[in-house]
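Can you make up a protein sequence with its backbone structure tokens?

===
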Amino acid sequence: MRHFLQAVICCFVFSLNLSGQADPEALKILDKFSDIAMKAPSVSMKFRLITNNQAENKIDTASGTVVISKDKYRLELPTNIIWYDGTTSWSYLPAEKEVTITKADKKDNSFQSKPSRIFTMYKKDYKCRLIDETSSSYIVDLYPVDIKSDMLRVRLTIGKTLYNLISLEYKRRDGVIATIKVQDYNLKMVPQPDLFTFKSDKYKDAEIVDMR
């Protein structure tokens, strides 16, 4: 889950410094991508996450889904399910049959507390460049201006016709490369409100750890 959240945050929270450091063509693509996602009732993705730890010569893979609707989301991976209704977060660990409940910090602007901002916070502190263009997609790289950043690069592949996310790769200084390969990208789903809340009657055996 940690690598997925980092990848998602890098995908959308990466900011672009507009003082001559952003490639205008790349910026247009990201603006369009963001605008379409923000106007949709939700962003729903099925994905495969590949984490390559080069330092340890280890590759892990996992499949999952995520639905984001304004400041609500539901993320499901084999080892963790998270529901967030804009105020309260429930994190369930299937192996331990344990759910941890936390309250959002109103001052926290991260993906966990304000997921909608992942589509708008890309206007400061990072450089972007259109690396390649095929008949069906754009490839855009993002680089942090801060040379001390743990992140070296994020590479987005965005579809030309629908401006959908095809894949995302982020590379860290510690040798970890995480790739999200999107298998389904859906902007048409209108989620029911209870999609983003934990249903205790469905997980009757779960131990509840209330941290609110």
Notes: The first helix runs from residue 2 to 13. The helical segments are 2-13, 24-39. The radius of gyration is 17 Å. The chain has one domain: 2-210.
